[in-house]
Amino acid sequence: MNNLLNNLLVALFASTVALAQQVSGTVTEADSGVPLPGATVLVKGTNNGTTTDFDGLFQLSGVPDNATLVVSYIGFETQEVAINNATNLTITLSSASDALDEVVVIGYGTQRKKEVTGAVSILGSKAIQKLNPVRAEQAIQGQVAGVNITSQSGSPGSGLNIRIRGITTNGNNAPLILVDGNRVGDLNAINPNDIESINVLKDATAGIYGVQAANGVILITTKSGRKNSELDVNIDTYTGLQVTSKKLDLMNSFDFAQYVNDAKDKTEFFVYPQKGTDWQDEVFETALISEANATVSGGGEKSAYSFGASYLDQDGIVGGNSNNYERVTARLNYQYDILDNLKVTANALHFSATKQNLPEGGIGAVLYNAVNINPTMPVYDEDGNFALANDISQIEIINPVAQITNNYNTDRTSKWTGLLALDYSFLKNFTAKTQFNINHATVLNDVFKAEQFYGNGKGPNTVDKEDKLSDTVIYNEITDFGVNYDDWMWDNYVTYTNSFNDTHNLIVLLGSSLFVEKGLYYGNTAETNTGTNMPGQSVWDEGMDINSRYKEDQLAKGEDWYENRLQSIFTRVQYNYKGKYLFSGALRRDVSSRFSSVNGNNIGYFPTGSIGWNVSEEDFLQNAKWITNLKLRASYGIIGNDRIPQKFPYITLLNGQATVDPGDNVSKPEDLVEGDAAGEQGNIKLKWEEQESVNIGFDASLFNNKLSLSADAYRKNTKNLLIDPQASAISGNRAPGAGVPFVNAGTVQNQGLEFSLGYNDTVGDDFRFNINYNITTIDNEVLSLNRRTTPDDGEYGVGISQTGITRMEPGFALGHYYGYKTNGIYQTQAEIDALDAAAVSAHGEDETYSTIGNIAPGDLRFVDTNGDGQITADDRTNIGDPIPDVEMGLSIGFTYKNIDFNASAFASLGHELVRDYERKDLYANRGTYMLRRWQGSGTSNSIPRATSGANINTDLFNDFHVEDASYVRLQNIQLGYNFTSLLNENSGVDNLRLYVSGNNLFTITDYNGYDPSANTGAPLGGGIDKGFYPIAATYMIGINLNF
Amino acid sequence: MKKGLNILLGLLLITIISCDSFVDVEPDGSNDENYFNTEEEYQKALIGAYDLLQATFWNTLTSLVASDDYAAGGDTFNYDQPTLQNVNQMIHTPDDENQLRDIWGLMYAGLNRANFILENKDKTDFAGKDEIIAEAYFLRAYYTFELVKFFGNVPLKTEEREGLLRITNKRILTDDEFVIERVADIPTAYGLIAEDLKEAIPNLPITQALPYEATKGAAQALLGKVLLYHGTYDSSKFGEAATALNQVILSKQYSLTTGADYANLFEIDGENGPEAVFEIQYSSVQAASWTNINGSNGTYFPKFNGPRSPYSDDVFDSGWGFCLPSVALYDLFDAADIRRDVTFYDLRNDQDRYSPSRDDTGLFNRKYMPRLEPMRAGSDPLNYDNNYRAIRYADVLLMAAEAEAQSGGSNAEDYLNEVRARAYGDNSHDYNATEGALLDAIYMERRKELAGEGHRFFDLVRTKKAAATIDGFTENKNEVFPIPLTELKLADAVERWGQNPKY
C-alpha cells in the first residue's frame, strides 16, 4: 500500500510541476496517417511518460534535450525517437509485422490473435465506451455475433440474460463469466467503464474451462495501469432522462364501456366518465439517471496501479423514485514486480446497490394492474382517498397508484471480491502461476406490508375491511430475507513455452483448479395483528432490524444452505509451424460434488482440439498485397455441464415438509408439530451433461486492414441433458417438499452461421468512418428424448390458467409453444352446423365438431391438425418459440475534426412471445386491437368476438395469443465534440469531450406488448409475456475528461 | 529464490495430485438410509405420514361437485377450474388433471410416507412402538381407501402375509412404477384396506392426548365404512360392517351435539368435540404460499366455498364461489330442521352483495365457508382454520343403521332416530313406515345430515343410485374417475394398467 501511495504522490508531483523542456507531438499510423489515440510515449530510461489523446496528440514536460522517446502501441512496432532539441514531433508507427499480433486472452493464458484457432470475439474498451451502457451486457448486445442478450425487465438494476449460440440445456444457459480470471455469477458488479476488453469464447476451445464452459465463456479484463506511466485520471459522467420505450394501446373509457356492453349481448349499460383514467400515464414517469465514474491509473518502475470508482443513481420509469436503484462500485488493480521473474497481481472489487422493488413481471405487478384495471375508474375517490377497485371482481387487480404508495420492498446487495496472483518465470522457458480468488456477496431483502385495503376481498389486502378501526382483524407483516454467497477458486498452472529454430513453436500448459461455492439463505417473517402499525413504530423504517421489533414468538425463521465443489486438472498443448499451421489440443478432468462418486459418475473428461491455417503466410499469397491476413480454422470438443439446482441430487434427504396441527388450540406456528419426510428423491445414476461442439470458420483482413471479415459455422449437440422431469406420482413425489430427481435424458441441437464484417477508412484528412455488421442464425431443435412424457412448463393465463404450454419435444425447438393453431374466424352458424354434421357422420350421434368447448360465430377457428374431423386436445401443435432465427447488429461511426458520431442497432427476427398480460375478465381493460373485433359476419377474420363468459378464444391457449416479436432497435446514438484542441496547452487536460446520447430511442416491431426483447431467461416458458417492464428510452448528456 | 520456487511448485503439485475427496460435501441432516434409530425418529416419520391428510381437501372438493346436490360454480368469465367443471357435468376424461391428478399424487404420497415407517418397523425397538406402527397402518388404510374410492383397483405392491393378501410394507420408489401392477379388482382392494385396519385396531388407544392422532374408534369407524363400501360387491360384508360400527357406538366415547353446540359444530369452537370420531386438523397460524398449496397447514377448501368478491360480511370471508348447493337440496329441509341453517348460507335475497358465480343459486356451503378469523396468518387465502370433520358420530350412526338394515340387524331404526332427534330437537320426526322403506329413509337422512361434507357422490355410487340421480352419470363408467392420462403415460402403463372402463 505504501508503494502505491508513493507512486501516487510521485505521479501527482510530476504532473503538476514543470521541469526542463516541454515536448509535444502527434502519433499516427504509418499506412493511413490516422492519429493513434492511447499510444504510450515514454522518455527512455525514466518513468516520465504519457499517452496520446483522442487525436493522437501528446505533451511531455521535463524532457532533457538529448532524450529518446519510446513510443509504443499494441499491434504496432515500438519506435524509439531521439528528440534532438525538437519540441514538436510527428511520430509514425507501423503495424507490427502483423496487426494481429494483438494479444488475446484465452483460458489460462494469452495468445496472439493471429494464432487463435477458436471462435473468439473481442470487444475493446473503445467499443464499450461508444455504447455508454449501464451494464456490461448491454455493450455486448449487437456487437458480437452469436451472443443474444435479452432483458428480464427494464427496471433499474435488473438482470440481463446472456445466451451464446442458442439454448443448449434445460437448465442454466448462462455462460461462464470470468473477470480477470475470477469466476463471477453475473455482470452486475462490474462497472462497464472499468472494462479493458471483453472476449467471448464461443466454441469448443472454451473447453479448457471444462464443466463450466458449455454455454460459452466471457472473459473480462479490467483496466490496469501501465508501468512507467504518469498519473492518468479519467472522469466520465453523464446525466439523463428516461421515459418508457412503449405504452400499450389500451381502450379508453368509452370504448371499454361499449366493449363490455357488446360482450354482455348488449344488456349491460353503465355510465362511463367521458375522460376516464389513463392508468399507464398514472404509473409511468420521466425518470432521472446519472452516473459519475473516475479512474486513476499510473505506474512506476516496478509497479502499476489502476483505481476506479463509480456512483449510479437511477429512478424507474414506473413509479420513479419508488423504483430507485443506487449503485456504488470501487475497483483496484495493482501489479508489482517483486523480482525480475516474480510478479504479483492484486485486485479488489467492491459493489453495493440498493434497489426499491415494485412488483413487476406478472400477476400483481404495477404494470399488470395498470393494463387491466378498469379505465372508467378514477385514481382518487371524492374524498381524495385512493379509489377501490371494487368494480373488477378479480382479486389481484388493484389500484396501481395506491400500490406504488404502499410499497416497501428493498434489496440491498453488497459484494466483495479479492484476487491475488503470483507469476513466476523460471528455467528460461517456464512460467508458473498461482491465483486465488475469493468472492463474498450478501443480498438482503426487506418487505414490509403495512395495513392496506384495496377493496373487498382483494388479494394484497392486509386488513379485511376498510373501516379497520372497528375491526380486530388488522395485521402487518415484515419479511427479511437474506442470502450469503461465498466462493473461492484456486488455480495453479505451469506453462512451458519454446520455439525451435523459429519454426516449431510450442506451448504446453498443465494446471489444476479447485472451486468451492456456498450459499446460505435465511429469512425471518413476523406479523402482528395488534395495534395499528408496527410495535413501537408508526412507520416503516428501512433497514431496521426485524429482531429488534418483534418478540421471539412473533418471528418465524428459516434457513437453508448449499455447497458445491469442483476439482479439476487440465492440460493443453499448442503448437504451430512457422505460424502457418496451428494446432491446439486440451484435456480437462473435472470432478463435481453434484454427482455420486459411485461408478465414477462425478468424474468427467472433456477433450477439445482445434486447428488453424494462416493461408496468408503461404508463399503463394505473400505477393497478394490486398490480403493482410487470411486464416482458416476448425475446432471440435466436448464440454460438460453440472449446473442443476437440486442439492445432493444423488441422495434422498429427509427435508420434505412434515408439519401437523396437533389440534389443541394452536395459537402460534411453534405449536405445530414437526416431523420428517422425504424431500426430492435421489438419483445415484445422475452424471454429466455433455455438449459436443463443432466449429469451422475463417478470419480475413483485407486492403491494409480496412476490411475485416469473419465467418463461422457451428453445431452444438448437448447430450445426456440434465432434466428435472415429470415422473409417475405413485412414488410419492407430489408430497410437499418432495420432488422428482434430475435425470439425464435427451439431446438438443443448436446450429447456425455467424458472419461479421468491419470496414474503416479515411476520406480526406479529417473524415474517418467505420461500419461493423454481424449476423447470426440459430436453428434450435430437440433431437431426442428418452423419457416417456414430454417435459413441459409455462403457464398461460392468470390464476385460472393452463399449464405446460411450452414443451421440450423431439423435432421442435426447445421450449416451443404448444397450443391450437387458428385459421380465421367462424363467420356464420351455417359454417359451424356443417362441421358438426360432418362430425356426426364421421364419429357418431352425440358428437360435435369442437369437443373442447362450444363454438359460435365470431370465435377463432382452430385447425384440425390431425385431420380427424374434430377439434380435440390432440390438435394442439407447435405454434412458435421464443428463440430468434436470425440476429443482426450494425454499428456505424465517424469522426470529422472534433466531432464524433456513433450509432448502433440490433435486430432479432423470428422469435415469438405469448401475449399474456391481459386478464381474462369482463371488467378488465384490453388492447385497442379488440376494437377491430368480429361484430357480425364478414367484419373480421382475425380478431374474435367479445365474450362475457368462458369460451375457447381466451380459455384455450392458441396462436391468437402468440405474436411475432421480431424487432429492430436503435440501441444507441451518440454525438460527441472534442474540446481538447481548443484548450490552452497548459491546461493539463489530455482529453475533454462532451456528448449527447440516446439509448433505445426507437424500436420497430409489430409486437403488441411492452418489450419484444424481453425474456425471463427460462428455457421453457421464458417467452411468456406477463407484462414485462419495458426498457427505458434514455436521453443523456455526458462528459469524458482525461488529464 | 530457489525456496520460493520450491514452495510454488509444491503447492501446485499438491492440488494436482490430491485425490478426488476434495469434492466430498457432507449432506446435512437425515436421509432415507440413516434413519429410524430412535423413538423420536419413528414419531417424526409418523407426523410426516399424518401431514398428507391435510391434502385431502382436494378429495372433498372434487367429490362435492361430482354429486347431484352441488354445482361447481366459480368464475363466470373463465372456464374456472376446468376439471371441477367437467366433473360437475360428468364429462371428465383422462385428460383432466388438476384436482384428479392432485388426489392421485397426494394420496400415493401419504401412502408412501406410511410405508416408509412400515418398511422400517423392525429396525429399532422401544416401548410404545406398536402404537406408532398401528397409526401407520391406519394412515395407509386411509390413503388407500381414498385412492380406491376415486380410482378403483389402483396399482399397489402386494404380498401374501400369514395367509392373507396384504399391501407390502415397502415404499414405491422411482422406477417401481414400471413393474407395479393394479390389484385384481375393487373388492380385493377393500380387503387390503380392511386388513390394515384390523391390524391397527388392537394397538390403538381409545383416546389420544392430541386430537390429530387416530384412536381405536377412528379405525373401527373407518373399517365399518370400508366394509360398507365392500358390501356393494359382497353383501356378507354388511354384517361385519355393523359389528365394527357397533363397537364404536358401544364404546360410549362419542355423542351427538345438540342445540347451540350443534349450531356451532362447524365453527372453530365446535372442533374436536364429542361428535368427532376422526377429524383432520387445520390451522391458520402459519402463512401459506401459492407455490406450495399442499404444504399449507390450513385448508384452501373454505376459500372455494365463499361468495365471490367483492363481498363483505361480518362472519364470512369472500371466496371463489364454488360448491353451490342446489335449491332442490335446500327444499328437502323443513324449517324445523336445525340442520338447514348450518348447511346453507342463504343469500338469495342479497344477490347484489356478491358477484354471482357460474350457476349461481344464491346458496352457499355454510359448513365449510371461510370464516373471518382474528388470527389468520399471511395474506393468501390458502390456510383457513376449519377442520375437516372426516368421520362424525352422526355418520357412524347412519352407517351403522345402514349396515344393520342391510344385514338384518335390529338397531337400524334407533340409530336413524337418534340422528333425527338431534335435528329436530325431539322425537317427533322418528321413522315411520309410512314414509317408505327404512333403507331409503336412512339414505335420505345421510343426504341431509352429511350435505356439503363430500360423502354424497360415493354414497350414490355404492348404493347404485348414481346413474338415476346424477345428470350425465354413465353406469359402469363414472363410479370411478379416470386415472389422469399423464400418470398412465409416466408409468408407461397405458396398456399395462389400462384406463378405467369406458374412459
Overall structural class of chain B, as computed from helix and strand content, comes to: mainly alpha
Helix percent of chain A reads under 10%
Distance N to C terminus of chain A = 24 Å
Average pLDDT over all residues of chain A: 86
| Mean pLDDT over all positions of chain B | 93
Q: How many β-strand stretches of chain A?
A: 52
Provide an overview of this structure.
The complex is a heterodimer of chains A (1043) and B (503). By secondary structure, chain A is mainly beta. Chain A contains eleven helices and 52 strands. In chain A, the strands form eleven sheets. Chain A has a 22-stranded antiparallel beta barrel. Chain A is globular and about 100 Å long. The model of chain A is unreliable at 1-19, 469-473 and 530-540 (pLDDT under 50). Chain B has 19 helices and eight strands. The mean pLDDT of chain B is 93. At the A-B interface, strand 22, strand 23, strand 24, strand 25 and strand 26 of A face helix 1, helix 2, helix 5 and helix 19 of B.
